[in-house]
Amino acid sequence: MCRGKNICSELGTNPDNWDKFSPLPIPNWVADQIDIFESVVNDFIAGDKESCLTKLKQIKNEEITNWYVEHGQMSGRHRKLILKVTPPQTIDKSLRDAIRSPQKVQDSVFERDGYKCRYCGNKLLSQDFIRLFVEKLDSPLFQRGETNLTTHGIIHIAWPVADHVIPWNKGGRTNLENLVSSCATCNYGKDGYTIEQLGIQNPFNRKPILDKWNGLTDKLASLKNILTSKC
């Protein structure tokens, strides 16, 4: 248990051993659960709800959530404690970008980046798809709750965020030149510090990982045609 402590067992205390691209990489066993979730979705769209729910139960929901709560979203805090850095100064509100929320451009950011986190490389899911799947499945097994413990682990690790590389309150612009796709783990892990302070390389210096993955946006049309049915 690392929450509330000054050292994270997964991060360690030696900055030379830390990942240079993300606050704390998502373990392979966690990332692999997204592939299982894709199979869950395929079964649901195909009308095989029994197989869908069986596979959904196989996903390590509690373990993912525990990793996210205890390690992932706390990684930036642990980095700054070990590096003994102080929060960077914010700039006057009058000098900040008038647009703070990336909502209007976030889909363009996600598509440009191939629905993968530009920090850790983890697969991301479309926000629209997650919302619609929760609605259509209508099952307590997969919910986006109001707390960490009531939100499914897949959503914790695959919910996409358009992240300000240079924080907005430190002068970062809300545009395609300063926004990258981020998993919630890396977004929270930055903890308001600059990438330089946390020892992370600028994600814009690496090309996005583009392949066939599209955040399951290709399944939205099929999902919309499914009648909501209590599972």
Protein model, in words:
With 231 residues, the protein is mainly alpha-helical. It has one domain (15-224). Helix content is 37%, strand content 4%. The chain has eleven helices and two strands. It has helices at 28-31, 33-45, 49-58, 61-70, 75-83, 106-112, 127-137, 153-158, 184-190, 195-198, 220-224, and strands at 160-164, 179-183. A two-stranded antiparallel sheet has the order 1-2. α2 runs antiparallel to α3. It starts with 27 loop residues before the first helix and ends in a 7-residue tail after the last helix. The model has no long low-confidence stretch (mean pLDDT 94).
Mean of residue pLDDT values: 94
Low-confidence stretches: none
Radius of gyration: 18 Å
Number of domains: 1
Q: Distance N terminus to C terminus? A: 34 Å
Quick one: biggest sheet? 2 strands, antiparallel
Return the string of H and E elements. Answer: HHHHHHHHEEHHH
Task: Tell me the overall shape.
Answer: globular
Features:
2 strands, mainly alpha, 231 residues, single chain
Q: Quick summary of this structure?
A:
With 231 residues, this protein is mostly helical. 37% of the residues lie in helices and 4% in strands.
Give the topology, please.
Layout: H1 28-31, H2 33-45, H3 49-58, H4 61-70, H5 75-83, H6 106-112, H7 127-137, H8 153-158, E1 160-164, E2 179-183, H9 184-190, H10 195-198, H11 220-224
Antiparallel strand pairs: 1-2
